[in-house]
Give the backbone structure.
Amino acid sequence: MTDTTIVVRPARDEDGDLIGQLIQLCWAEYEGCIFDRYGEMAWLDTISSDYEERGGIAWCALSDDIVIGSVAVAPAGEVGGAWEVTKMYIHPNLRRAGLGSSLMSLAEEHASDRGAKRLVLWTDTRFEAAHSFYECLGYFKDGRTRELDDLSKSIEYFYSKTLGGEL
């Protein structure tokens, strides 16, 4: 990576392959995480459209036309005004430099401006650095897990955060 400007903008459907490359790079760090772009990740072809249909938005951070970060947020469909954060990925060489926090702030602000009272997210049990990251941002793990029927045999932890300082 060269030292250039980072541009954060709403994702476009045509960004799917670039976002997929970032996800694949991040997953490669973890044993057993299998990236299947055209099987399990075919939704990347319509990432922007899908989030817009759900009332949300996906963003990507780019440097030299390479996606180096992503995040998305949309209504969670739960009673109580919860929104779900998804697709939070940062290029491994750029972690702990503030980009992840900036993207999460963007997602939180977007959801809050649209009435969200709480944010929720699920993260793979293998992504230990992500757990620490979310906890530093005020997200709490409540002990819930879910198993996904995917090639990676993923098990995920549930995290949530109340917005606006309310308990």
Notes: The domain at 7-162 is CATH 3.40.630.30 (Aminopeptidase). The longest strand covers residues 66-75. The radius of gyration is 15 Å. The chain is about 25% helix and 30% strand.
